[in-house]
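2.7 Reproducibility. Because tokenized structures are sensitive to small changes in the input, we list the exact sequence used for Prephenate dehydrogenase, including any N-terminal residues retained from the expression construct. No trimming or masking was applied before prediction.
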Amino acid sequence: MVESRLTGPVRIVGVGLLGTSIGLGLTARGITVTLADASPTNLSLAIDYGAGVAGGPDDQPQLIVVCVPPDVTADIVARELAAYPDAIVTDVASVKVAPLTALRASGADVSRYIGSHPLAGREKGGPLSGRADLFIGRPWVVAAHDAISYQQARAIDDLILDLGAILVEMTPEEHDRGVALVSHAPQLVSTLMAHRLTDAAHSSLNLAGQGLRDVTRIAASDPDLWVQILAANARPVREILLAFRDDLDRVIDALDDPLAPGAQRRIAEELAGGNAGVARLPGKHGQDRRYGSIIVMVDDRPGQVARLLAEIGELGVNMEDLRLEHSPGAQIGLAEIFVLPEAVSRLTEELAARGWRIAG
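Resulting structure tokens (single pass, no recycling of outputs):
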């Protein structure tokens, strides 16, 4: 068992995906974890899966982690602060300004509260989806404010490091502007694009490839949760969407008469702007570098992807990333393997020599 940085019991309120995953990760390190949830069924499942034990009236937690929906986060944090006057309290809601503002307005003791946000998740929620390794290598923001000292907040840092996450310090305002850009606005763009598919002809949908699936993947998210998130972070999201609308209007105007003077230049500039934006996204290990890729055709049979990856390793090539796509109407998949540019030619030749079919 790996030694934990935390020293005292941890209380988790709300045992959905995040709460259960935190409990599983901490109990694996020998930390005493007590659980609470409004749903007896969820609480029972989280306990059965080993995320902790049911909380009791005599609990004295060192740290309390509130993992409830955004619209009730401030109320639950205030309740926990009052019930456990010696504990530090954090929450994992995806907005940080609104809870802090509400707690200050209510007169809660924010000298023992600091919001945080792990940027980790899965397509499915609930305690059954919990994983002890959910946070490994993922950013976890700590949204500091003036009313709490570093010494008081150290338990939250220890929690994050114990769970294998990467601690990121931001103000609540910086956090909310950041997630508006990289999460909340993209959620709406993806959702609205997916909405265009509801009345589309089946003949059109049969042409869908990985590009459309990439754009619409997150559109399957829980609408109830996202209404709460967007309402709590409305202003930063609105600002980004207004700028996005201006970009879209310029493209629409150009497409109205693509042969008009300057129209194609405007379209090209928007496309080039997209290239520049993508280039700024950090790559593997936070590096800003581009990779080459090859696409390998993989038979849709058990063990084929594993064999491909094993042979890439045997060839001494480090795979930087992987993307899988199914070929509509065919019993094959397309594995796009990302490697350093200088490895593309050799890997292509070596895999082809081993009998792999290289697309293109």
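The longest strand covers residues 292-299.
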